[in-house]
């Protein structure tokens, strides 16, 4: 098992570049562009792909500090699970039509698998809590911040006491200090997650705020989550598939609008009148 903070396969390869012989350097250059291939192929198959000998692969692996090829392959497979796009890039290509087909077939399968793990009662419970909460916080980092912003914008049409974190140029401590048991936090945690995610969630839980966690399928449910929606993100390429994430967010937002009742309709009506008055749209 790889030790915490130990150098990655790519880091080891870059560090050893000056020490490689020409054929080993050729293999290194290949793997720096397609590091995930070591997880997909045997040593002989990798040698053929990189146009080197089996002996070169063996020497290369040992210079990186691995006992054998299987150890290196296990480490790269584990690193692939973190979501690094480079580790998912392959050296072989499919036809454009085939690529289109498999991408959409996987997206459809992700949607089906995601829906199978979600109950409408759970969604309605969260939607009701968002409506009645004294304050709603939507948190997301990196890719998840885009989803948080979209979710906030949809909900803001009927719930005005909602904010997105993190904000530009601000730290989080001040906002967490403002949270309490009457608040609702929607935390969107798609890979690759920041290292502080678990610590952040634990600190939010201590405030008593109710937490909804929207994650990929690999994230484990923790006791501090009142709701946990797992989204299938498999994809036949270097990037995660986020179709199911958008679908879940859209459905939750839709139920907030629908369950908001007359107060929600009144705010929507007021917004439309202001759009007309301002000639905005």
Overview of the molecule:
The protein folds into two domains: 9-88, Arc Repressor Mutant, subunit A (Orthogonal Bundle), CATH 1.10.10; 104-278, Glucose-6-phosphate isomerase like protein, domain 1 (Rossmann fold, 3-Layer(aba) Sandwich), CATH 3.40.50.10490. It is an alpha/beta fold. The longest helix has 21 residues, at 96-116. It has helices spanning 9-16, 22-33, 37-40, 43-50, 54-63, 69-80, 96-116, 120-132, 143-156, 173-177, 197-206, 243-259, 261-278; strands spanning 135-140, 162-165, 183-189, 210-216, 225-231. The mean pLDDT is 91. 54% of the residues lie in helices and 11% in strands. It starts with 8 loop residues before the first helix and ends with a helix. It is built from 13 helices and five strands.
Indicate the radius of gyration in whole angstroms: 24 Å
Task: Indicate the percent of residues in helices.
Answer: 40-55%
Under CATH, the homologous superfamily of the largest domain reads Glucose-6-phosphate isomerase like protein, domain 1
Please state the average pLDDT score.
Answer: 91
- Give the low-confidence spans: none
Please report the first level of CATH classification, the CATH class of the largest domain. Alpha Beta
Class by alpha and beta content: alpha/beta
Strand order of the largest sheet: 2-1-3-4-5
Please name the CATH topology of the largest domain.
Rossmann fold
Largest sheet: 5 strands, parallel
The total of helices stands at 13
